[in-house]
From TrEMBL:
Name of the protein in its database record: Amino acid permease
Biological process, per Gene Ontology: amino acid transport; transmembrane transport
Transmembrane domains' residue ranges: 21-38, 44-63, 101-123, 129-146, 158-181, 201-223, 244-263, 283-303, 338-361, 367-389, 410-431, 437-455
Main location: membrane
Natural source organism: Ligilactobacillus salivarius
């Protein structure tokens, strides 16, 4: 076996650098949730959406520190699913793997829906099914290349978003304080409180916004999947975990600050990109097309990272004898090609169904929220299992943590507080009429998976195992 392969990964190459790992995680996180979903969060809570992003950011920090602590010692493909099995229960690992697949198929569908809307900016008469099909085929071909080639592509894919968001924040601050693009009349900060106050939706609206924000941040745990294909896992994990959380918080909070400060929150359109609308309002017409291109690549990058993540989880299920063995087959490029094609087919089928259903729908204003939010609850499964697994991991591996470079801070209090906060967010998703149906779909999915698991393996998770 090659020195770049190991048994824990089922034969996958270790060819991803720490920079590629970080950009893959950024690509999975900075996607449609920021560029499209921010409209929904702003609608629910107004300018206080800034505080909401910061609150969820604290939870994100706890999850990533817990994940980083464990991956540093035992890196592998689908690592947090292994932790769920080893430190909680085999059911937890089973739910984690299938939840990841469900999440990224649904997210992939919503990302492709977003792409079709962004393409309408230039070609308003282009049929959605044509643009969606082209996007899905393109991303499938990208994923069928080698992991290193995919990582290189995603590195530059994500870099477009990162550079543009930084430039947007800088330009936005000039608009706010100097009046750039607004005849040099500074917009100022008054939009943060003029139109109904800072907390326009009250406590309930603030809590409702958290569910979409949690969905926006989901994808950062991709670091726990790419670790299995990292060249130098320990170095890559330390570098990535230490920097990625702060970068994402700066990008998200900085971009949203620009939006709600330049433009009155209650005048943002219900559907479309707030980025495009914001810069169009202040007269930077040329930037609208540029930003539309960027959010187009953002959606494609998010779907691209999702195909990578879920195909590796399907591969992991097959290696663990929990899915047909065909999904663990590797191509000559050392990628799980059957798993990749299966995930892409699922996204294509879902996208076609969405087009058919939208024809019969009287209103599609909340279509994005319904489709996207159905993935949020399954997407939270990795966060829960990471926080729970680390509790037992710390107790069972105390001797290995004596010289650990970045242990989970404030253990175990930080674990418990983060878990309680996530439970409260989920409860408010059931209360919110806009997300109730979607989160119910996610809950039914998890219940069905649990039933299938116990039928196959029994309550101890061992029956029928090879």
């Amino acid at each position: 076996m090659s020195k770049n392969k190991d048994n824990i990964n089922g034969g996958l190459n270790r060819s991803l650098s720490s920079g590629q790992m970080e950009m893959i995680a950024l690509g999975g996180t900075i996607g449609v949730g920021l560029f499209m979903g921010s409209t929904s969060t702003i609608k629910w809570t107004g300018p206080s959406v800034l505080l909401a992003y910061a609150v969820v950011g604290v939870l994100l920090y706890a999850v990533m520190r817990a994940l980083g602590e464990m991956i540093y010692i035992t890196p592998g493909t689908g690592s947090f699913a292994d932790y769920a099995t080893d430190y909680i229960h085999p059911l937890a690992g089973y739910l984690t793997k299938w939840s990841n697949i469900f999440q990224y198929i649904v997210v992939g569908i919503s990302e492709v829906i977003a792409v079709t809307q962004y393409l309408n900016f230039w070609w308003p008469h282009l049929p959605d099914w044509i643009s969606g099909l082209v996007v899905i085929i393109t991303l499938t071909l990208a994923n069928l290349a080698s992991a290193k080639a995919y990582g290189t592509l995603e590195f530059y894919f994500a870099m477009i978003k990162v550079v543009t968001i930084i430039l947007m924040i800088i330009i936005g601050l000039m608009v706010i304080f100097l009046g750039l693009g607004n005849n040099w009349h500074a917009v100022g900060l008054s939009n943060l409180w003029k139109h109904g106050g800072f907390f326009t939706g009250g406590f309930k609206g603030f809590m409702f916004s958290l569910s979409i924000i949690v969905g926006s941040y989901q994808g950062i745990e991709l670091l726990g999947i790419t670790a299995g294909e990292a060249e130098n896992p320990k170095h890559a994990i330390v570098a990535s975990v230490k920097s990625i959380v702060w970068r994402i918080l700066i990008f998200y909070i900085g971009a949203i600050f620009v939006i709600v400060t330049i433009y009155p929150w209650n005048q943002l359109a219900a559907v479309g990109s707030p980025f495009v609308e914001t810069f169009t309002k202040v007269g930077i017409a040329g930037a609208a097309g540029i930003i539309n291109f960027v959010v187009l690549t953002a959606a494609m990058s998010g779907a691209n990272s999702g195909i990578y993540s879920s195909s590796r989880m399907l591969f992991k299920l097959s290696v663990d004898k929990e899915a047909p063995s065909i999904f663990s087959k590797l191509s000559k490029h050392v990628v799980p090609n059957i798993a990749i094609l299966t995930i892409s087919s699922g996204i294509l089928i879902g996208f076609i169904l969405n087009i058919v259903l939208s024809i019969f729908s009287k209103s599609s204003a909340n279509l994005f929220v319904i489709v996207y939010s159905s993935s949020v609850l399954p997407g939270l499964v990795p966060w829960f299992v990471i926080l729970l697994s680390e509790l037992r991991f710390r107790r069972q591996n105390a001797h290995m943590l004596e010289e650990h470079p970045f242990k989970m801070p404030f253990y175990p209090l930080s674990n418990y507080l983060a878990i309680i906060a996530l439970v409260i967010i989920v409860l408010f998703m059931f209360v919110n009429p806009d997300t109730r149906v979607s989160v119910s779909v996610g809950a039914v999915f998890l219940l069905l998976l649990s039933l299938i698991f116990f039928i196959r393996h029994g309550k101890d998770g061992q029956k029928g195992k090879n």
